[in-house]
Design goal:
The chain is α/β, with parallel strands linked by helices. The chain contains 17 helices and five strands. It folds into four domains: about 80 residues, no CATH class; about 110 residues; about 90 residues, no CATH class; about 100 residues, no CATH class. The chain has a five-stranded mixed sheet with strand order 3-2-1-4-5. Helix 5 links the parallel strand 4 and strand 5.
């Protein structure tokens, strides 16, 4: 709710009302629990800063909750006014919690009269299910609550139910005042999600060399003693690195990329451990631990570096697509073109690892993007309007 523009000059005179308001804003900005204000240490700290403030004057969690709701009401009215007459680009996402509850978020991006870009969370709430029509009705209801009558695009992931969401909205809001081309180009598929699908297909059958390296990292991170032994080898070999080993998250390919990127700096350490650390050697010889695949060798680390080079393209593109501080619409063209060109080149590689992965990625890429014909045409308009590209750049692509 609060960015840099949300901070106001601190008044020189102390008042209980001003301190309460500042406390509520702190709870919001730092995402603190309401019970934080009832902590004895925090209360003593406040009275040290301002002797005029007695502990009895520090609001309870219930009071802070009411203050937060009051701020939300004020800020909501400000946002409602800022959205009036604006055409908004929406992004929605849904997921299911570990309690098997369905949630949905709706984010709006818009530009004000001074051409400043804003990103605001319009709603975050529990929904009955993730069916397309259910999500469509929730979006329609949210838009009416905010008084938004102009939608430019709706960005969703590639879930099959989202097609029904788009069709529902195209039908029910096509007569709204801010409709563009009868919402024929309302649907934009999330580029970051498409990249995730492409990489996921490429990593589905991960190479044995990569599996060995990952298992070596898991060995080191599995206990404090093993990690300390590893750090001892790092010191002995004189390897200087600010980044340390990190475990990957199996469901997030970018964490695998970051882990392998860090691990390749410690190749000499793992090779030395193979000769001098009996526990490390025994671990990889035990089929129950590693399947008897053996510890990673120099060839395995070389394959790892090759793999990291390929994933770096996707990692950098995902970071650009996921930015919220600047417009990203005109960046997709460059990133998509570079990725497709590199995948096509690597699919003809003599390296068996790269060839297999690039072939799988190329197939998925063609399914999602084709030769550019499966991409929303409004994205091409952003490229044409970009001063760095113009129409000539796009003609060269086709």
């Amino acid at each position: 709710m609060y960015g840099e523009e949300g901070f106001q000059p601190i008044p020189t005179a102390f008042t209980i009302e001003a301190s309460r308001k500042a406390l509520a804003k702190m709870i919001i900005i730092d995402e603190l629990p309401f019970r934080f204000v009832e902590g004895y240490g925090f209360q003593r700290y406040l009275t040290t800063l301002q002797p005029k403030l007695q502990i009895r004057n520090i609001p309870s969690r219930q009071t802070v909750a009411r203050d937060v709701i009051g701020i939300y009401g004020v800020e909501s009215e400000k946002l409602r006014g800022a959205l009036k007459g604006c055409r908004v680009c929406l992004t929605t996402n849904t997921w299911t919690s570990i309690q098997n509850l369905n949630y949905m978020s709706l984010t709006g991006h818009f530009i004000d009269d001074d051409w400043r870009l804003y990103k605001r969370i319009l709603n975050f709430y529990q929904v009955e299910d993730h069916k397309g029509e259910t999500i469509g009705r929730e979006i329609e209801m949210c838009l009416r609550e905010w008084g938004i009558n102009g939608i430019f695009t709706l960005i969703v992931d590639n879930a099959s139910s989202n097609g029904a969401t788009i069709k529902f909205l195209q039908n029910v809001i096509k007569d709204w005042e801010g409709t563009v081309l009868e919402h024929d180009f309302l649907h934009i598929r999330c580029c970051a999600h498409i990249l995730n699908l492409i990489v996921g297909d490429g990593m589905r059958e991960i190479d044995a060399s990569i599996a060995k390296v990952l298992e070596a990292v898991r060995y080191v991170k599995s206990s404090p003693n093993r990690n300390q032994t590893f750090l001892g080898f790092v010191e002995r070999l004189g390897i200087e690195s600010k980044s340390l080993l990190c475990l990957d998250v199996p469901t997030r390919w970018n964490s695998t990329y970051l882990m392998l990127k860090t691990t390749q700096k410690f190749e000499k350490v793992f090779i030395r451990m193979d000769f001098e650390d009996d526990n490390y050697f025994s671990y990889f010889m035990n089929k129950e631990n590693s399947g008897g695949m053996g510890s990673p060798s120099g060839i395995d680390f070389r394959n790892c570096r090759t793999f990291v080079g390929l994933l770096k393209l996707f990692y950098n593109a995902t970071k650009k697509f996921s930015s919220s501080l600047y417009v990203t619409t005109n960046t997709f063209f460059d990133e998509m073109f570079v990725i497709q060109e590199n995948i096509s080149h690597l699919s003809k590689s003599q390296n068996h690892l790269l060839e297999n992965m690039a072939t799988k990625m190329e197939s998925k890429c063609d399914k999602c993007w084709g030769k550019g014909n499966k991409i929303n045409h409004l994205l091409y308009m952003a490229v044409v309007l970009s001063p760095r590209k113009k129409l000539r750049f796009e003609v060269l692509f086709f």
